[in-house]
Amino acid sequence: FHTGEREEKCIIEDTPSDTLVVGKYKVQRWDIHKHDFLESAPGLGMFVTVRSPSGEVLLSKLYGPQGTFSFTSYLPGEHFICFQSNSTRLAVTAGSKLRMHFDIRVGEHFLDESAIQAKDKVNEVNVRLEHLIEQISHVTKEQDYERKREEKFRKTSEETNSNILWWAIVQTLILISVGFWQIKSLRDFFISKKLV
């Protein structure tokens, strides 16, 4: 994605609790003379701030033009991952465009291939089995989280449907009472004018 030099961009990542989140990014600055993005942005860094659904800051750190960060979610819900460059130029003169390459991995535990190759086959199978167990655990957490979200959504939908039903009944009663009042008023008017 593209962003301004002094602009803060936030990404929302919905994660279950106790989940490892790993993010990698690379920043490129627009070069006016070459009309292209520079491969590395010299002297440019990024402030990375991560906030939990409750607003607590989980991570706030300055990185270089490319970097890797990670955090563990303690609460289920939407986590805000915000990026802002460390540019010291004034907002009026900081008109440069930045291109951000961003990759995020949720709940992944990476295997160290060199360590696996160094061990014998039994250990390799054991390490891969532990990795699969971790992945199964992560999938189970993800499903539980989605199930809770679906229950909350269903409850909200049922409450909304109930409110809509009562509102329709109230509207119907008001409409009927206004109709009777109009009929009575017209009848009384016609009687007073001796038209009926």
Automatic annotation (TrEMBL):
Organism (species): Eulacestoma nigropectus
Bilayer-crossing regions: 164-183
Domain spans labelled GOLD: 8-106
Name by which UniProt lists this protein: TMD11 protein
Its membrane topology: Single-pass type I membrane protein
Record SMART domains: EMP24_GP25L
Name of the gene: Tmed11
Key words, A-Z: Endoplasmic reticulum, Membrane, Signal, Transmembrane, Transmembrane helix
GO cellular component: endoplasmic reticulum membrane
Annotated InterPro entries: Emp24-like (IPR015720), GOLD_dom (IPR009038)
Top-level division of the source organism's lineage: Eukaryota
Family matches, as PROSITE patterns: GOLD
Family annotation (PANTHER family): TRANSMEMBRANE EMP24 DOMAIN-CONTAINING PROTEIN (PTHR22811)
Primary residence: endoplasmic reticulum
